[in-house]
Amino acid sequence: MEKEIYIIRHGRTEYNKLGIWQGSSVDMPLDEVGRKEALAFYKAYNHVEFDLIIHSTLKRSKETVALFNASGAKYVEAPDINEISWGIYEGKPHNKKSLAEYKSVIAAWAEENYEVAFKGGESAKDLGDRISRFIGWLKSVEHKKILICSHGRAIRGLICLMNNEALKEMEKYDHANTGLFKAILKDDEFKFSIYNNVDHLNGGV
Q1: Among 77, 88, 135, 150, which residue's CB has the most CB atoms within a 10 Å radius?
Q2: Degrees to nearest 5, angle at CA 176 with 111 and 85
Q3: What ranges do the domains of the chain cover?
């Protein structure tokens, strides 16, 4: 059975604007700009007859797809697509120390040292394990048109694994707020046709 899968990042939050680490433990709602981004996406894609809408457990993900409630689609909350945990830095502003450590962690992942993580946070391996579990479940559901709303790092991991790529490739995939990725699942393989499209934010599709 062929499935059409739309994946978007959540809309902007105040912490996105201020450069504060969010991760999986900081549950910020959308700010005014984020709500406008969610509305723009809804206006551009509400014609798609989604029969399954999947979001993480976090407010910013739920709120981004809340406007699709009227479509009658089934809603599912999936902890496996929560944002990665940034450990001790969550809820704190970006600074030289945390950004330097971030670069160091990303460099380690690029060398396939996937066990590396911020103190108290998740490693790339941790993220990959739960994203792999999510993909297995996604392949098993019978729905044909699926909308997924997740988070930046989680989406990078998700796109890599859906493309059968190693997690060291995560940095290839940029992710704007409400940026759209679109794939077809056929014969147990995902094929992407759209990456991080934001035309809906400019009045187009």
Answers
A1: 150
A2: 50
A3: 3-202
